[in-house]
Specification:
With about 250 residues, the protein is mainly alpha-helical. About 80% of the residues lie in helices and about 0% in strands. The protein has one domain. Helix 3 packs across helix 5. The longest helix has about 55 residues. The protein is elongated, with a radius of gyration of 31 Å. It starts with a helix and ends in a 23-residue tail after the last helix. Keywords: Signal. This is Conjugal transfer protein TrbJ.
Length: about 250
């Protein structure tokens, strides 16, 4: 099953669970801020998952174009390379932003609701964000610079490409871009899997809370049964007999 399908199914499941959890407020859980926040987080993950899918498609298209240029590096055109650099930079920025946001959201959730699971996901998203950042940073270190020296990722990639081209020629500069792009695609796929794992964990948690809520209701009903007396059915009085003849 594809990651996108997994997240969609998880989202549908959670939306179904929402009604059950909110309805079962006997145990004091239904409609809580925690439940609402979990559902909000799921909706954000669904939105991010669609964006990641779009980034992966863009990255694969750029990779196809790069492979064509690598096969014939003498035909490199400035505008073509410039557009590919812009796309790679936009993908890098978008992925990094999503990873950072999810890490912060999970960190805040873990602190607010004392959730070890959310704390673990915060660490995993933070680790992913750092790894993805290193994808560009390691390439820039080869030319003696770093990301924060540039106004944008696109500017950093442009400088990296131009310096590599001046030193090693078209082929090496294109291969450098290709390596960065491939690494980004791989990291985005890992981000998809991580988001799907978090959504699945949320589903499992919500289902367990729903079960506890229902059990609390059942237990309360069972405790009350010995003290409940059956209500007798209403009985009609017999109709009076009238002696119309005085006998």
């Amino acid at each position: 099953m594809k990651v996108g399908t997994k997240v969609l199914l998880v989202g549908t499941t959670l939306l179904c669970l929402q009604g059950n959890v909110n309805a079962g407020s006997v145990a004091g859980f239904g409609g809580s801020t925690e439940v609402t926040q979990i559902l909000n987080n799921l909706q954000l993950i669904q939105s991010y998952e669609q964006q990641v899918q779009a980034y992966v498609r863009q990255g694969l298209q750029v990779q196809h174009e790069l492979q064509n240029l690598i096969a014939n590096p003498t035909s490199v055109l400035g505008p073509e390379v410039g557009q590919m650099i812009n796309t790679i930079g936009q993908i890098w920025n978008g992925g990094n932003t999503m990873g950072y946001n999810l890490a912060q959201i999970d960190k805040n959730f873990a602190t607010t609701f004392k959730s070890p699971t959310a704390g673990n996901f915060a660490k995993m998203f933070t680790s992913w964000h750092q790894t993805n950042t290193d994808t560009l940073q390691s390439a820039l270190r080869t030319i003696g610079t770093q990301r924060d020296q540039y106004a944008s990722s696109q500017a950093a990639l442009t400088d990296l490409y131009n310096r590599s081209q001046a030193t090693n020629g078209n082929l090496d500069s294109l291969q450098t871009l290709s390596q960065i792009n491939i690494r980004q695609i791989q990291e985005l796929q890992k981000l998809q899997e991580l988001m799907a794992s978090q959504a699945q964990a949320a589903t499992t948690y919500m289902a367990s809370q729903t079960a506890k809520d229902q059990k609390g209701l059942d237990d309360a009903t069972g405790l009350m049964q010995p003290y409940q007396r059956p209500i007798p059915a209403a009985q009609s009085a017999p109709a009076p007999k009238w002696n119309l003849f005085g006998r």
